[in-house]
Design goal:
Elements lengths: L1 E4 L1 H12 L6 E9 L2 E10 L13 H13 L3 E8 L9 H9 L4 E4 L5 E7 L2 E9 H18 L8 H15 L6
Length: 178
Amino acid sequence: MRLIIGREIIKMLIKMAGSSKIEVCGFLLGRRDEEEFLVLEVKQVRNMLNSPSAFEMEPEEMVRALDEAEARGLEVVGIFHSHLKCPPLPSERDLEGMKNWRVPWLIVTPGGEVKGWILGEGGVEEVKIVDEANDAREGIKVLAKTVRRGTFGEGGTNEEFKKLRLEALTQRNPINPP
């Protein structure tokens, strides 16, 4: 299980957590493919509990966020929230919420700790967090090696490599191709 998310989004979530006296929360929106969850954007939702140690998303804001996402072809690929004074581990309340939202839960702290969790068949499992830019770069490196080894087409031309690179980047971010 992998949560693919850009470094800038992670930084934004940490900054959001650090600038609030209450837990921040919301949706991670994007696309899902089997064991991968690709985060394309974040939608913060007001914490109606106004609590530094618990959150509950405001229902009307939730519905608006979900409607907007659906209209744009995005789906909820995760829930995010902050833990202000404890490690990024799921609380009992988080575990209850995970029963309703079977997607990764990203927990961030103001100090920069970030962990992802999902409720699976055998209980709570940690989700691997992958930097989107590094993941795309690794895919391009594999394609480049394949072309250099001559296993693509008839040895691989520069034009074929450019086309493959563009295809790889477009597949990673279909909404905003390069």
